[in-house]
Amino acid sequence: MVKFIESELVLLKKEIDEMWTLVYNQLERAGDSVLTSDRELAQQVCVCERRVNAFELKIDSDVEDIIALYNPVAIDLRFVLAMLKINNDLERLGDFAEGISRFTLHADEPVMDVELMEKLRLKEMVSQVLSMLELAKRALQEESQELAVSVFAKDNLLDEINAEAPAILAEYIAQHPESAHYCLDLISVFRKLERSGDHITNIAEEIVFFIDAKVLKHSGKTDEGYPVEK
User: Fold this and answer.
1) Which of 108, 130, 163, 207 has its CA 20 to 30 A from that of 79?
2) Domain limits of the chain?
3) Which listed CATH number (3.90.550.10, 1.10.3720.10, 3.60.20.10, 1.20.58.220) goes with 2-218?
4) What is the model's pTM?
5) Three-state secondary structure string covering 89-153
């Protein structure tokens, strides 16, 4: 039984890794579509969203099967539950990528103001989201609590950029009233990127949840801090 559940957990982790790569690519393309006003790239993201949803359902089903068939306990149960929650957060990130791409598809202005984008620091925000997602993935692969915790601080930059965006856009609208609709829609892009950071932080928390229990197990202590009987 132990060998069977170990192989299932390995497969589950592999599926999460593949889902992670898919969502990372979705966010990267979505960000590029806004920065370059590339509607074809945005359309690719929207089409690929179906794959993200299908992947989420597949992983959810596999988790249910593992719990029903193998009744995992202790560290194995924590791992399965962490993967279930991470899977859900990854799906939400895919939703945000699609929403960002739809901004590009529906944008009235074919070419954006480069100076405005620099003030808004949109490219920096996209890069930070991708950096956080990549760092969280490394934390899971290497089972590093330190890497997972380091994700939390990176979310502050996203909050800062998102908070500054409305005032910058309001000033731009005052000078370019014909771009008001475009700017108001652009606020939603910043909001989705900021929310992406929140979900990546959730993912990092789940990784800590899994790793911390593993560290406790190997140190000879239970969650309550008492020695394990031998």
Assistant:
1) 130
2) 2-218
3) 1.20.58.220
4) 0.90
5) HHHHHHHHHHHHHHHHHHCCCCCCCHHHHHHHCHHHHHHHHHHHHHHHHHHHHHCCHHHHHHHHH
Tokens of 131: 């950096």
- Select from 20, 8, 46, 3 the least CA-distant residue to 207: 20
